[in-house]
Amino acid sequence: MTDEERPLSALPSPAARAAAFAAILLGGVAGALIGYTLVDLQCTGSCETPKGIGLLIGALIAAGGMSVVAVLVLRALGEWRQIEQRERAGRA
Q: What pLDDT, on the 0 to 100 scale, is given for residue 15?
């Protein structure tokens, strides 16, 4: 099935969705490291619970922010594909 025969879909390609998922995971890991390290540098004594809380909050904030970016990128890719198809249809 060629691009002209396939109906336009708002669903991104599986590769784009996998890349977005990997980016969200990577952002969460980076946020967890930042949150853990931030608490580790400021805390003295027994700090296991605060370090865990810092790790969790950092991961959630970073993954949440990265998910917003991923959604915006996937939408932009869908719009770009739609514009390219319109241009191809106009030339034909």
A: 92
Domain ranges across the chain: 29-91
Residues comprising the chain, all counted: 92
- The answer to whether residues 54 and 36 touch, using CB atoms and an 8 Å cutoff, is yes
Q: Consecutive sets of 10 residues in the chain, 92 residues long: mean pLDDT of each?
A: 59 90 97 96 93 97 97 90 83 71
Q: Is the pTM of this model over 0.85?
A: no
State how far the Cα of 31 lies from the Cα of 55, in Å rounded to an integer.
7
What is the distance in angstroms between the CA of the first residue and the CA of the last residue of the chain? 18
Structure token digits, residue 12: 């991104």
Burial classification of residue 80, based on how many CB atoms lie within 10 Å of its CB (0-12 exposed, 13-18 middle, 19 or more buried): exposed
Between the alpha carbon of residue 22 and those of residues 27, 47, 56, the distances in Å are 9, 31, 18
